[in-house]
Design goal:
By secondary structure, the protein is mainly β. The chain is built from three helices and 27 strands. The chain has four domains: about 5-60; about 65-180, Immunoglobulins (Immunoglobulin-like), CATH 2.60.40; about 185-305, Immunoglobulin-like (Sandwich); about 310-430, Immunoglobulin-like (Sandwich). The strands form eight sheets. Strands 12, 14, 15, 16, 18 and 19 form a six-stranded mixed sheet that branches. Strands 1, 4, 7 and 8 form a four-stranded antiparallel sheet that branches. Strand 18 (about 275-290) and strand 19 form a beta hairpin.
Length: about 425
């Protein structure tokens, strides 16, 4: 049995032989030869389809190459929203090509640059890769490209193969700016461990020992910059008296479209024994770049107290109380300092509903890390009006703290008369 392809070859051979014979016959036989030749011409296309099915199926298998990733690396580049900014430096274009077709093949990968929307594309480099099997991607193609200043530029990563029948996915375009004035320089403060007042405190407390204070920063621009983390302490009674502490300039590199920026940490191991009393702390980071560029980020301005004595005071949870009932406010006092301490208790009640038994009394002495409870009962009178509001203030003042004035903690629940949605003739109180 002959295969379809062989049948075609045999049919074409036979027809060619007949054509030669009939041309000779035509020269000798006249009209009869013409009729025979026409018959042969009619038979030839009918003989061809016998094996065309196999040939057509083979032709349909072809690769389909596409650029599936295109980024820059090796120098600063960043995407800010929809805009891309690129450093005036030499970059590495990383181009990934995939084959989503049904046959393997080789392909030419090209990088083109366009300086502006009105200029022509110029070839940077072209590389032939492959063969790439169906359903796989080639390792990234690396092409060096040197940027130059100017906005509105473009880079094109393109593929070309004669066997690729789908040209709709053969290009990836990057539009970008290479700024020169102003340069694209951006420093960002991500987080910090600046002391801040805790629950019930009016100022932050810094222990007399060594306290690490950190600021985490990041370069979100396209050129290397420096970051200087600073702590400024000012005497609130005389702003001319100051103390400065800083990390010095730390170099932080930009990221790229391939690998984003890496956060950097500036740390000051602050010795709390060098200062006493209450100070105003301003924490900031000063970023410095080329061309005289600077940018100062003020992280916070906080009142701080240097002491071995510290505590937190948690306020009661929310609740409602009807007139004629009694509720108990539970406060939790935790010693967060490094020394034992106890506290003077002060209670005020604008409506006089709070039990004043503990007012002017003292807590027991308790050690660092220990939590104690303070309870204050509140009796809401039967004749309380819906518009009555009682504000109860609990103030705890350290006894052992040598600082003048001694530090204190405050909790102040609010008591509105009623909550929306409850019956009109009922009285409700809420504690926060």
């Amino acid at each position: 049995m002959l295969s379809g392809r062989n049948k075609v070859r045999r049919s074409i051979s036979i027809v060619s032989k007949l054509l030669k014979e009939e041309v000779a016959f035509l020269l000798n036989r006249g009209k009869t030869a013409i009729a025979v030749m026409l018959l042969v011409m009619f038979v030839t296309p009918m003989a061809t389809p016998f094996a065309s099915s196999e040939a057509t199926t083979s032709a349909r298998a072809s690769p389909d190459f596409s650029v599936t990733n295109f980024v820059l690396d090796g120098a600063g580049s960043v995407k800010d929203g929809v805009n891309i900014y690129v450093e005036n430096a030499t970059h590495v274009a990383r181009i990934v090509v995939s084959n989503t077709g049904s046959a393997p093949g080789t392909v030419i990968v090209s990088l083109y640059h366009q300086g502006s929307s009105s200029s022509a594309k110029t070839l940077v480099s072209a590389i032939e890769i492959g063969p790439i099997s169906p359903g796989t991607s080639h390792i990234p193609v690396m092409i060096d490209w040197t940027a130059s200043p100017g906005n509105g530029q473009s880079l094109y990563a393109e593929t070309f193969s004669l066997s690729d029948t789908n040209s709709g996915n053969n290009e990836w375009r990057l539009d970008f700016d290479v700024r020169s004035a102003p340069r694209y320089l951006v420093g960002t403060v991500l987080s910090s461990t600046i002391p801040s007042p805790e629950a019930g405190q009016t100022e932050a407390v810094i222990d007399n020992g060594i306290t690490p204070i950190n600021a985490t920063v990041q370069n979100d621009g396209v050129e290397t910059i420096t970051a200087n983390f600073k702590l400024l302490f000012e005497d609130p009674t005389d702003p001319a008296i100051t103390h400065n502490f800083e990390t010095g300039e730390i170099f932080i590199d930009p990221g790229s479209l391939h690998v984003g920026p890496i956060p950097s940490n500036g740390s000051i191991n602050f010795d709390g024994s060098v200062l006493t009393g209450i100070w105003t702390l301003t924490a900031s980071v000063v970023f410095i770049g080329t061309g005289g560029w600077t940018d100062t980020h003020v992280i916070s301005t906080t009142t701080v107290r240097f002491s071995e004595y510290s505590a937190t005071l948690s306020s009661p949870a929310d609740r409602t109380t009807e007139p004629g009932l009694v509720t108990t406010l539970n406060y939790w006092l935790t010693n967060t300092g490094s020394q034992d301490d106890f506290f003077d208790i002060g209670i005020t009640s604008t409506q006089g509903w709070a039990d004043m038994t503990l007012n002017t009394q003292q807590t027991t002495s308790f050690s660092p890390g220990v939590t104690i409870s303070i309870q204050v009962e509140v009796s809401v009178p039967l004749n309380a009006a819906r518009t009555d509001i009682d504000t109860i203030v609990l103030t705890l003042t350290s006894v052992n703290d040598p600082t003048v004035p001694r530090y204190s903690l405050t909790a102040s629940p609010r008591l509105p008369p009623r909550l929306p949605g409850f019956p009109h003739d009922s009285h409700f109180l809420i504690f926060e």
